[in-house]
Design goal:
Length: 470
């Protein structure tokens, strides 16, 4: 699920001189390990960052300036900068600046071995596999797009029941690669060994799938799923009466969208799927994330008032630019908010920082996906789904907060007698056991998905009455 809080953590970076450095950025309680590499070309220098926990192997800076005892690096794409002085022990002592925030950052020299260190992912499936694996492409008859996918099929089981995996928000590959975790590859491997065919697909514009992701919306992604269903129905090795959907995060919204209008969908699995409006999803997400960072309740509630006001503008129909509308909301909010709270929650201290804050939010929200997603409500879709539903959410999920979303799913599926709703204790948005349970921790955890989640999915699937239908 996409999230946007004051500091754009997904792209936070650091810097270095003509060698490699490493450091840890404490961004509101979220500790992010950073590596900096600076390369000299004559008298000029270029630099890039490696951020393992955010799956950024080589993020370039836009400008690198340095003297014998100082350095300044700018990252235009995120309106960020790092300024530091070089100490006698070759370490860097400086601060990261972005959206009005200034965060201390110290970096120490590191070795090539440190830089080359790979993330450990012991659950990622590795060949040889005891089932068939097909790398396929097919064309959608209505979208006109070509889809690149992997179909895993149990050997000697034909026609087999099938499961289509639907990724969460943000452009992802067929494995739903998140910080080197490949949860969809893991799910496919586990369930195919249990007798299920599993189709996992590259998102639009990713891998072997065509299309313009940046101009696409959640409704377009639902159309993609309909094409995947149509494709599986053409295969003689797939039981067309036993094709179901499994969506993670935003995919958990798309799955009931499709199932609500297609009675042929045999079952639906929602992994960290929303059960309330997308506005409530994002407000509760921001509340959970910022509360974890230790924000005082009064400051948190004031900030959420502003966030909600701006969020509503993201899907409001208006001829006025989103930037101008956001600016008005910020101005109105500042009139009733103590100056100290304004500074603490937004980093706004003057007109320049106010403009930077407004622009950062407008840049994030002003696109077709947000304009559509912000106004969506899963309720009308969930109410129309008549096939069996399994809904799982982690109790420590700070992106799709478990209690309000599972209750929303329960309330909106009361007429469906084949619904299982389960909160997975101690698990985060990726269904990992977590300690800090922050977004930044995802990449530091070696486990991709707790085995108990896979076991619940397999047990539920194999217990469905629909399996007996031919």
């Amino acid at each position: 699920m996409r999230n946007y809080i004051t500091i754009a953590l997904v792209l936070i970076t650091a810097i270095g001189f003509s060698q490699s450095w490493k450091g840890t950025l404490d961004a509101g309680g979220q500790k992010i390990e950073l590596f900096l590499v600076v390369e000299a070309k004559g008298t000029a220098h270029t630099s890039y960052w490696k951020i393992p926990a955010q799956n950024l192997p080589k993020l370039p800076s836009s400008d690198t300036q340095m003297t014998t005892d100082s350095i300044k690096v700018s990252i235009k794409m995120i309106q960020g900068a790092f300024k530091a002085r070089k100490l006698a022990d070759q370490s860097l002592d400086g601060q990261w600046e972005q959206s009005g925030y200034k965060i201390p950052l110290k970096m120490t020299p590191c070795s090539a071995a440190d830089l080359a260190q790979e993330l450990v992912r012991p659950q990622t499936p590795k060949a040889p596999f005891p089932y068939q694996v097909e790398d396929i492409q097919y064309k959608g008859s209505k979208t006109g797009l070509t889809y690149g996918a992997t179909l895993t099929h149990p050997t000697g089981s034909s026609p087999a029941p099938a499961l289509i995996l639907i990724t969460g928000s943000g452009q992802q590959d067929r494995d739903e690669n998140i910080l080197s975790h490949k949860p969809f590859a893991l799910i496919a491997d586990y369930l195919t060994r249990k007798g299920w065919a599993v189709l996992r697909i590259d998102d639009r514009g990713k891998g072997k799938t065509t299309g313009n992701f940046a101009q696409s919306t959640t409704l377009d992604f639902a159309d993609d799923v309909r094409e995947h269903i149509a494709y599986l129905k053409t295969r003689t090795d797939i039981d067309s009466k036993r094709i179901g959907l499994c969506g993670h995060s935003e995919g958990g919204l798309i799955a009931p969208m499709v199932a609500a209008s297609d009675a042929s969908v045999a079952f639906t699995i929602l992994l960290a799927g929303p059960g309330v409006t997308c506005e409530e999803v994002m407000v509760s997400q921001n509340k959970a994330l910022l509360a974890e960072q230790g924000w005082p309740e009064e400051s948190l509630n004031k900030y959420l008032d502003l966030y909600r006001a701006m969020f509503k503008e993201a899907y409001a129909k208006s001829t006025e630019s989103l930037t101008d509308r956001f600016a008005k909301k910020v101005t109105d909010w500042m009139k009733t908010t103590p100056e100290a709270t304004v500074s603490r929650t937004t980093g706004i201290t003057d007109e320049a920082s106010k403009s930077a804050f407004v622009k950062s939010y407008a840049d994030a929200f002003d696109n077709p996906w947000w304009h559509t997603f912000a106004g969506l409500d899963p309720a009308p879709y969930l109410k129309k789904v008549r096939c069996p539903i399994l809904a799982l959410n982690g109790s420590k999920d700070v992106q799709i907060v478990a209690d309000i979303n599972l209750e929303g799913i329960r309330q909106n599926t009361m007429k469906n007698k084949q619904v299982r709703i389960q909160k997975m204790e101690g698990l985060n948005h990726l269904f990992q056991k977590c300690t800090q349970c922050t977004v930044a921790e995802y990449g530091t955890i070696e486990t991709t998905m707790e085995p108990e989640v896979l076991a619940v999915m397999a047990e539920w699937l194999n217990g469905l009455a629909v399996l007996g239908k031919k």
